[in-house]
Design goal:
The chain is 77% helix and 0% strand. By secondary structure, it is mainly α. The radius of gyration is 27 Å and the shape is globular.
């Protein structure tokens, strides 16, 4: 009889609805504090917010400072450092001109060194500029690794960087090496934040534009990293981002226009002073090799670290190579 069944069915449905309302708060109370299902898939876009990983990275930065500061403060001047002191002697305009004519390099680092010399002129003080820039480059490289390969532990990235004697050597000289590393790391970080991550912002894109301008006014070859960035966007089929990226590169090219006469003057001086100058064909061939190699290196950055962390023997080979490189650097310093 339908009339006798319906009351039982209604009471059954009422019991199920009460059971659902009771279970839902209980299920939500079992989740971790701050749980939000809508942002769970975006957690990999902000990997640098891990406090433990940041603490480990800061420990390695402190280790790097402990290794690099003693030779920076107590070692003698190298001949290349005399060139930097000679270039930055005088006014800022004279420094910019000498950077092209004597160093054959853009003036960003030497202008910064000229400003740094206004507060002091001792060798240990001048070398602290390179040490500070190197420490910043180490931290930015760590942040970039959190973006490109967030599953890799912090110590895997920071250990070979902070204890690499070539990096320590770059931090103890009054030369633009560390600024080049800082600019490269910043370009890698801002490329992902501004053009590849899901949470992109105009601030990051403008930051990448500023870093690109600093790059081409720091070292000419850093322009190949800008080409590599466009190649990465092309390989990942990010067409809208690629169009915006090319628009920013047009701005960089316009900003570079005042530098072209100075580059020609410096190259003419270089041709007159160097006996064996590379032929235009060899220069073009090496440039093509760099353009082809850099996009591959950036595109395979994530996969390479995954391979190293998943293969035990790969880690052993990496440790052996790092040890051999360190031993070779020690022998070079000893000689």
């Amino acid at each position: 009889n339908a009339n006798s069944i319906m009351p039982h069915f209604a009471s059954f449905e009422e019991g199920r609805s009460k059971q659902k309302t009771c279970r839902t708060p209980q299920w939500r109370s079992m989740q971790a504090p701050g749980y939000n299902p809508s942002v769970m898939n975006e957690s990999h876009n902000a990997p640098e917010s891990r406090p433990r990983e940041n603490a480990i990275a800061l420990v390695f930065v402190a280790l790097f400072l402990a290794i690099s500061l003693p030779p920076a403060l107590f070692s003698d001047l190298w001949i290349d450092e005399y060139y930097s002191l000679h270039t930055t002697r005088g006014g800022l305009t004279n420094t910019i001109i000498k950077s092209y004519e004597t160093e054959f390099l853009p003036p960003a680092y030497f202008s910064l060194l000229w400003l740094w010399r206004l507060a002091g002129d001792s060798v240990p003080y001048l070398r602290t500029l390179s040490v500070i820039i190197a420490a910043c480059a180490l931290w930015v490289a760590y942040r970039a690794s959190r973006r490109w390969c967030p599953e890799v532990p912090a110590w895997v990235v920071m250990l070979p960087l902070s204890t690499n004697l070539h990096f320590v050597y770059a931090a103890t000289e009054i030369r633009p090496y560390c600024l080049n590393l800082l600019v490269c790391s910043s370009l890698l970080l801002l490329l992902h934040r501004g053009f590849l991550g899901e949470k992109r912002s105009l601030r990051d894109e403008v930051g990448y534009l500023a870093a690109s301008i600093i790059a081409v006014y720091t070292y000419y070859h850093l322009g190949f990293i800008l080409v590599a960035g466009a190649a990465v966007l092309l390989a990942r089929s990010r067409w809208r981002e690629l169009l915006r990226y090319l628009g920013y590169m047009v701005v960089v090219a316009i900003v570079m226009l005042p530098e072209i006469p100075m580059v020609r003057t410096g190259m003419d001086t270089l041709v007159q002073t160097v006996d064996s100058f590379v032929s235009p064909w060899d220069a073009f061939r090496k440039s093509v090799q760099m353009v082809l190699a850099l996009p591959f290196a950036m595109y395979s950055f994530h996969a390479a670290f995954r391979w190293v962390c998943s293969d035990y023997w790969a880690c052993v080979r990496l440790a052996c190579g790092w040890g051999a490189e360190t031993w070779g650097a020690l022998n070079g310093l000893w000689r």
